[in-house]
């Protein structure tokens, strides 16, 4: 068996851990993989742990005992999150994003892998200790966000459909009211997509009054599921509190005003820091 130099072993172990977030890895896996004593592996992990925590890239949890091992928990430092959210707000403030009717163009921002990874890590930092089973979103621009978050939490993604797909078998469908337009819409979820009593994280790209998110919550009741948390990329600040259908959520950015005539957008950080703390 090949004997790794320590520098090479550190690099490989770090990569191995990064690719397996929230997975408990026995020390014997590393000892056998790198033909090294457990004492040497423990020393290596101590170095990796120090670097992760010093740089604000996450935590390394070690569990002692025969059934123990090491687990990597992705996190993001407050300073890094501030920088990322500041950059997002700057991009969202660009005048050319204003569309007819006062809508905001977001697709290009969510099409940037670096931003998506950052969004995923930020929400994963907040939701890390909730022990969810799945990440759920509706089939909109929230899909890439859901996958980014799920990749850091090592969870499957469940997608709620606007229209039932025959290829997904039998499904549960409900009607819900859009909070802003008051129109009635339909959403459905395949029965096989979610186990009963599942613990769910709901995410969406944009929330005005929260009608879509409330619809997903109502749909989850049909599966006896529990909603552990709600994450929103951008929220609208133009909705009166009395019209808000969802009150407990975490947002990264907040649109406090759009002036279509002068093509001006007022954007500020969302409630990420006030709700989730400093991490």
TrEMBL record:
Gene3D superfamilies in UniProt: 3.40.50.2020, Winged helix-like DNA-binding domain superfamily/Winged helix DNA-binding domain
Keyword annotations: DNA-binding, Transcription, Transcription regulation
Coiled coil segments of this chain: none
Occurrences of domain Phosphoribosyltransferase (ranges): 109-238
Bacterial purine repressor N-terminal domain sequence ranges: 5-74
Subunit record text: Homodimer.
Matches recorded under PANTHER family: HYPOXANTHINE/GUANINE PHOSPHORIBOSYLTRANSFERASE, PUR OPERON REPRESSOR
NCBIfam families cross-referenced by the UniProt entry: purR_Bsub
Family statement: Belongs to the purine/pyrimidine phosphoribosyltransferase family. PurR subfamily.
Protein name according to UniProt: Pur operon repressor
Name of encoding gene: purR
């Amino acid at each position: 068996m090949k004997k790794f130099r320590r520098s090479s072993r550190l690099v490989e172990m770090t990569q191995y851990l990064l690719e397996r977030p929230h997975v408990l890895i026995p020390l014997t896996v590393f000892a056998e993989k790198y033909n090294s004593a457990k004492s040497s592996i423990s020393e290596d992990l101590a170095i990796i742990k120090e670097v992760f925590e010093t740089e604000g890239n996450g935590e390394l949890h070690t569990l002692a005992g025969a059934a123990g091992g090491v687990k990597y928990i992705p996190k993001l430092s407050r300073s890094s999150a501030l920088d990322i959210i500041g950059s997002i707000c700057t991009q969202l403030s660009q005048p050319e994003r204003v569309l007819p009717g006062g809508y905001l163009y977001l697709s290009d921002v969510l099409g940037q892998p670096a931003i998506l990874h950052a969004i995923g890590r930020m929400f994963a930092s907040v939701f890390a200790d909730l022990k969810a089973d799945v990440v759920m979103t509706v089939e909109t621009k929230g899909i890439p966000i859901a996958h980014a978050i799920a990749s850091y939490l090592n969870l499957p993604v469940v997608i709620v459909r606007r229209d039932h797909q025959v290829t997904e078998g039998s499904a549960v469908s409900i009607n819900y009211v859009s909070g802003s337009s008051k129109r009635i819409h339909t959403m459905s979820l395949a029965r096989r997509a979610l186990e009963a009593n599942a613990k769910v994280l709901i995410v969406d790209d944009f929330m005005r009054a929260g009608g879509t998110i409330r619809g997903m919550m109502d749909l989850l009741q049909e599966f006896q599921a529990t909603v552990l948390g709600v994450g929103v990329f951008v929220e609208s600040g133009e909705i009166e509190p009395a019209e808000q259908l969802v009150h407990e959520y975490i947002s990264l950015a907040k649109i406090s005003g759009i002036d279509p005539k002068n093509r001006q957008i007022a954007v500020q950080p969302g409630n990420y820091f006030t709700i989730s703390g400093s991490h």
